[in-house]
Predict the 3D structure of the following.
Amino acid sequence: MTLIDKIRGLLASIKFAIVIFALISLTAIIGTVLEQRAEPARNIQILSRLFGESLAPIIYRVFEKLGFMDMYHSWWFITLLILLSANIIICSLDRLPRIWKMVREPIRPLATERFEMAVIKRELLLRGKPDRVKDSVAGAINGIGFSYVESKEDKGYQFYSQKGNYTRLGVYITHTSIIFILIGALVGISFGFKGFLNLPEGRSYSIAFLHSAPLTQSEEQERDRIVNVLEASWGNTSKASEILGIKEKSLKEKLRVYGIQPLGFSIRCDDFDVEFYEGSDMPKKYRSWLTVIEDGKEVLKKAIEVNDPLKYKGITFYQSSYGMMSHAHGWFILRITSHSGVSEIKRLNLGDRFTIHGTDLEGTIKDFSPALSFDHQGRPFTFTNMMNNPAVFIDFNEGGKKKYSGWILKRYPITGKLPESHVVEFIDLWGTQYTGLQVRKDPGVWIVYLGCITIAIGLYMAFFMSHKKLWVRIVEEKDSTRVYMGATSNKNRSAFERKIDKLIFLIRKRREGGD
Amino acid sequence: MDSSFLFGISTMSYILAMIIYITYLAFRKTQIGIAATTVTVIGFVSQTMAILMRWKEFYDVSEMGIIRSAPLTNLYESMVFFVWCLILGYLILEFRYKNRSFGAFVTPVAGLALAFIDISGMSKEIHPLIPALQSNWLLAHVTMSFIAYAAFALSFSTGLMYLILKTEKRNQAAYIFWTFTLGIFVTLLLIMGIDFLTFKVAVRPEEFIKNYMLKASFLNSSTAVKVLSWISMIVIIFITWRFGSVLKTVIEKFNISAETLDEITYKSIAVGFPVFTLGGLIFGAIWADQAWGSYWSWDPKETWSLITWFVYAFYLHSRMIRGWRGKRVAIVAVIGFLTVIFTYLGVNLLLSGLHAYGGIE
């Protein structure tokens, strides 16, 4: 026995499969308890809850050394998955020749004595000689959906038929699909990427970030400069390296260090908006209006939301989160409609004034709150720094004299109705929010989906279809005909038995109709 | 008449059916059996109507279209649906195998689950959906997962009954396994009951499971209570182990042969496994791909589903290839459902992850 045979034998053994199953499951369980790719403090906290304060740091270090903090990407976990695939492949190959023979083997007539031994057997007596009965029997076999082969026998005929022999391959289709899915995942990991991009309203980027390692101030400056230059050169690395005055190769090295993934085109966020459920802080929908720019030209526009991403040149942008920029300058967008019906949109800064068309009424934006609420004494306060209930405070003057003032809330347009029936609507504070995008390129995803489709077919064949064989012998007995039936099915025998009973019913019906 | 009224009717029907099924076991009169089935069917029909009404109620307020308004979006709704699947599965079994004994097992589970949901006050209000859940995949993914869970639940109970029937000696590994499992089950139910009695008055039910579960026993601040809890658990397990033969006598009265139990276990898994693969794993992956930008991200729910899938794959292979029958595969079936419970409840309650929607809140 050579070494290769030994390895092969080991990989094909069921014990080995059990060990692999168990190892994958047990390590995966640990992976669900420890938070993956998290801050060390989080996992130390989890560990100290389980093992006590004193042991936690030591256990943390051991687990970290073993790669448990990002275990699904560790070399040993991937090795386990590869070993599992090897096991599936070898076990399937070992059994395939035998199964293939069963699939291809044409059905043969059954010897007389074997009818007694069939798993499902029936017998009935019909009036008339075999030559007269024959057609009814044959028609009934067709009637239950079987096509038959007929052979002449000593004192009668035999019909034999099989169906669903290919369903025996269901298991192999399932196994192959699993391998397909794993290959697809491998292709995705090798040739794709998974990144993120926090894109402020009004800005465009031609890159995505693959990771966010903590940087020093000078590193951060360098990174931002690279990002900006890449943006200015439409994501073209050779052009960008010229502008930066470094070699393209060293630029690529820097991109790797900073986790910068050039996209090959730019993506711009034109606007971002959250819609809330009425009277609650629960977001109903959040949307980003995105524009794809390639070589300075706008090529695609789409409003994306959760469950509805944008796809361009194999790269997909998913709406995943949102937030506020810390030092951003925003524009207040107001729609002012005078009582005469003239409507205009204004972009204003804090402190800016506007007049209502055709009147002397003048408004000044005095204050802003991203999330306005009132306490029980009616005093306004801001309950969060997210834009949960944005509002502007506006002073209204007429001819230099103060008239009235108040909060206008974006989510409650009724608050902008003035006594003179002018309407001031607070449309947006534009330029202060960013949209959090997941950016992904996965050239293997179609292989995975193909595997998903075939695994569904394979499982259906393996569990809900069966290989059925049917033999019917008709033998002359005095002036009548005796019918012997024998049948087997590799699965779901009772369903096949019902079918055989239907066959008998059909034969009887045809005979009665015939005579 | 609203949906909660109908839910009330079905809860009471299942509990009434349990009493009739037990009476039926004692007297074995066909009329009693028919009465039990009738009451179960009444409960099932009213539960079906209740689910449909709740669907319509949500549809009317959500403005999201009929498919996306399916009442399957939180723990309360999913448990109701789980009970529905369980009863449906049982009725199919009763019809196919012409045996009612099993009803005495299933109806109490259904009735108690519904009653528990009701008493615990798990949030029954119709909540609006967060953006990630607004997808047409929700209906297919969740219904199929729960049909599979219900099938696995059936295989668990038949597997457990098989083990009870087939073991005698107290030093047998299989005997120790089932008494141990059942002992832990009983303990968990008891201490959750104690938790509930202890904290019911003090806090809102939603906070209960997240913050107070096991706090009256295993996680109590006093060491004495902790030690006492562990001792009680050991005592309960010991009692189950010592007097397991009593259960065996009860199940022998059911008139179900061990072979039938083995067959039902297999058939339930043979239905549950493909449904779970397609609806739970594949549809879940496709949906995750759309919503989160990744078809598989090893979040705890996904990982635990995969572990569950592995266990049942192992069950099927050991039966098909190795020709394992009887106790060994029954043990695998029981373990399989323990992982299902953890996938369904444990992950939501104990582990964090992307799937946090199913929580109590």
